[in-house]
């Protein structure tokens, strides 16, 4: 993504929140963080391990954040310490951004039925879906009424995408969890939503064998004939996490150039590949 300026404003003035899932400057969570910071939000960040601190620290500093917590979502001690730090430094929070997913590389290729192991299934669901329930519960304990949470999902939860495999199942569990969380926290006016983003070139998308084909196909078959801009995802997050999003909860909002809405693409670039 080219360096872009986010329009400034005060939509998030006086709000504080935690961003989970920045690995580097290409991370979707980082686009969201900059968008929120440009609207006056105060941010804290988690990073997965020492190797990523080198990348995340300068990014956090560039938006004036000095709360950086090591957090591996499979490690309860690091989840405990992250939320204890927020309670100690801030007392309360107003929002949570969850942008974390992982499945073993061997689980993301070929036949779903043949290649999905019990351990692979458990770990993908644990890291990619349960982590939102766990972080959401912990966040809710220190969240002001009227707060909001957002997670990131992908169309592979609703439809079969080659090689996405067990991650699709994990995203389906994540979206369903989001709806149950929305119901539980609704009475406190805490809103919980998901953004279903189209493919974006991040670290998590780099390891995909069929990557080139996927980006070309998404561009050709989407309504807007283009790949998804992380700025649009960040804008949707700003809407959902600010008071612009009042009364919106339990929703999976697609930001994918309209790819999800298309049943059959127009005759065009894809036509060439289909002999009569
Ligand atoms: P990314 O690699 O920048 O971010 C993924 C993050 O998950 C990393 O920061 C990584 O440290 C973190 N993570 C993985 N395992 C973890 C663990 N055990 N504990 C703590 N953190 C862990 O890639 P991204 O594309 O920005 O992914 C963010 C979210 O967006 C993911 O949920 C992904 O499924 C979703 N998403 C991505 C795309 C895409 O095409 N890039 C599309 C739709 C949805
Ligand atoms: O959610 C994702 C990717 C999540 C992801 C990526 C990796 C790569 C490296 C989870 N686990 C891993 N494990 C690794 O070892 N996306 C929405 C991006 C993505 O990933 C795909 C896609 C798309 C789109 C994988 C196969 C097919 C399409």
Give keywords.
Rossmann fold; 276 residues; 9 helices; binds nicotinamide-adenine-dinucleotide; globular; alpha/beta
Description of the structure:
The structure is a single chain. The protein has helices at 28-37, 50-62, 76-89, 112-115, 118-142, 166-185, 203-206, 211-221, 230-241, and strands at 16-20, 42-47, 67-70, 93-98, 143-153, 191-197, 252-255. The protein has a 7-stranded parallel β-sheet, sandwiched between helices. The chain contains 9 helices and 7 strands, in the order E-H-E-H-E-H-E-H-H-E-H-E-H-H-H-E. It has a single domain, classed as NAD(P)-binding Rossmann-like Domain (Rossmann fold, 3-Layer(aba) Sandwich), CATH 3.40.50.720. With 276 residues, the chain is α/β, with parallel strands linked by helices. Residues 101-103, 105, 108, 154, 161, 163-164, 167, 199, 204-205, 207-208, 214 line the site of ligand 0WE. Nicotinamide-adenine-dinucleotide is lined by residues 21-23, 27-29, 48, 52, 71-74, 99-102, 127, 152-154, 197, 199-200, 202-205.
